[in-house]
Specification:
Number of strands: 0
Order of helices and strands: HHHHHHH
Distance between the termini: 63 Å
Radius of gyration: 24 Å
Helix content: 40-55%
Structural class: mainly alpha
Shape: extended
Largest sheet: none
Strand content: under 5%
Length: 171
Amino acid sequence: MLETIRDDRQMRALTGMSREKFDELLPIFSQIYHQEQYKAYEEGLAKGTRKRKPGGGQKGKLPDMAHKLFFILNYYKTYPTFDVLGHRFNLARSKAHSWVYQLSPILHQTLMETGDLPERKFESVEAFKAMLAETDQILIDVTERPHQRPQDNEAQQALYSGKKNNIPSRI
């Protein structure tokens, strides 16, 4: 799939980043991936469960690091189901799931190392305001979440949003 990308616009549509940024992340992603593989190898040796060296065994459908990085970036850009992701990359649904959960922490470490992760926690309200000093507008995307309804009738009425129109008609 990576070979069929025609231009930078298509790369941005599929991964959320330019080809230049992708090429910049690739060596760091590869290094972290190999470090994690070697750490798992060492742990397997210590437990006595390891049978072969890292890189040994059957080669998967994501043959190289560029395909692995493209796979995980594409997942986070488009959020397809594992069935769709598997079909897109010629993988079984379970393998698509395994790759996402194997590659996600590696991508996170890569983005932390390059400084490309957004700030998520702030020490104070002032620190938050300072970070957004040059921002004109903030959009917050929220989702309504279900919650347990109280059994007490008065408590139910206090929490009632008026969203459902269950008022009987007076005809």
